[in-house]
Amino acid sequence: MGRDEFIDACKQVGLNVTYQRIAIFNKLMEHTDHPSADDIYKEVRQDYPTISLATVYKTLETLAKHDLISKVTYLHDIARYDGTSEAHHHLVCIKCKKIIDIDSNALDAIGIPAGVPGNFRILNYRVQFDGICESCESASTEQE
Amino acid sequence: MGRDEFIDACKQVGLNVTYQRIAIFNKLMEHTDHPSADDIYKEVRQDYPTISLATVYKTLETLAKHDLISKVTYLHDIARYDGTSEAHHHLVCIKCKKIIDIDSNALDAIGIPAGVPGNFRILNYRVQFDGICESCESASTEQE
DNA sequence: GTGCATGCAAACCGTTTGCACAATA
DNA sequence: TATTGTGCAAACGGTTTGCATGCAC
Q1: Which residue of B has its CA nearest to A28?
Q2: Is the minimum distance from the CB of A12 to strand C below 7 Å?
Q3: Which residues contact B12 (CB under 8 A, 6 or more apart)?
Q4: Which neighbouring-strand residues pair with A92?
Q5: Least C-beta-crowded within 10 Å: which of A71, A107, B32, B120?
Q6: Which residues of B touch A135 (CB under 8 A)?
Q7: For B55-102, what is each residue's pLDDT tens digit?
């Protein structure tokens, strides 16, 4: 998505178009990696020295909420532990944050896909399924 | 792994066997879900009221480092953002923390595996490959 | 007895929030 | 002008650290 498309997209979802939002979005699009809020802040501040870190956070959250960008943090932001040391796969309920192990031979048979660059030595992999668990599903029949 | 095996394993990797470590490990093994350090702390404290949260953190980290348990936090603990709003898959370098997108049709074709309970509504999924990127690989020929 | 482990409190860091001011539509 | 966004600073929550005491070996 380019600058003009971004402006259009903002208008479509009812967001004011501010130079901060444009600057943050542009910086994000310049990255092929996945910068943190602080990374973005440091870069944008070179062009707009008065911008605040709080604005960067708020803007990124706002844009992500409207699906103009995406937030790339798997699972939750607090550490979780598991009694086994083997990597396995998880179901994560996006509502109640419950984590359910899955043990599937089908998944383990995925193997290394074609898209992976050969110079990256893969040690392990894991699949995370995001969804809604049974109890949250039934609870949300009424809820927002 | 049971209590006795755990004690043996500690000895094998050169860790002192303390009642705190045993208590923390036991609590963790009682869980089928993935408790946080604080969850474990609250439970262990019922049996050992003098235990501290710092000990729980240190113990979990120590046990994870020696592969007696595993830490289940995908990616990093700080939020990362991405200019696209589509879910995709990632290579994560465990050394330099770099995140590389992969775009593989093979992965997208995984589908829902057999091990997934039918009452969990899956909205999305993503695969994370952990490994070592090219530059860290060559750098680590010398390093610790 | 030596060295590793624990417990406490304070520090730390990423993130969020409240509120006054400023900019957008 | 009404509403939404920004910037500052303070608060927050999970996690880590320094250090003195205590325990395992």
Answers
A1: B83
A2: no
A3: none
A4: A99, A130
A5: B32
A6: none
A7: 999 999 999 889 898 887 766 666 677 766 566 777 877 777 777 777
How is residue A54 written in tokens? 């709080």
**Using CA atoms, how far apart are residues A77 and B87, in angstroms rounded to an integer?**
18
pLDDT digits (tens, 9 = 90+) for A22-62: 999 999 988 877 889 999 999 999 999 999 999 999 999 99
B16, closest nucleotide (Cα–C1'): D24
Domains and CATH numbers, chain A: 3-81 (1.10.10.10), 87-143 (3.30.1490.190)
Position of tokens 């809604």?
A132
**CA gap B137, B128 in Å, rounded:** 19
Q: Give strand letter and number of the nucleotide nearest B76 (CA to C1').
A: C14
Alpha-carbon torsion, ordered B40, B45, B51, B56, to 10 deg: 0
Residue A36's φ and ψ, nearest 5 degrees, are -85, 170
B72: Cβ under 7 Å from strand C? no
Spacing of A23 CA from C25 C1' in Å:
20
Q: Give the nucleotide nearest to A62 (CA→C1').
A: D5
Among partner residues B79, B115, B124, which is closest to A103 by beta-carbon distance?
B115
Residues of A104-117 as b/e, b for ≥16 C-beta within 10 angstroms?
Answer: beebeebeebebbe
Residue B82 CA and nucleotide C22 C1' are separated, in Å, by 29
Element (H, E) at A3: helix A3-13
The full DSSP string for chain B is: --HHHHHHHHHHHT----HHHHHHHHHHHH-SS--BHHHHHHHHHHH-TT--HHHHHHHHHHHHHTTSSEE---S-SS-BEES--S--EEEEETTT--EEEE--HHHHT----TTS-TTSEEEEEEEEEEEE-HHHHHHTTT--
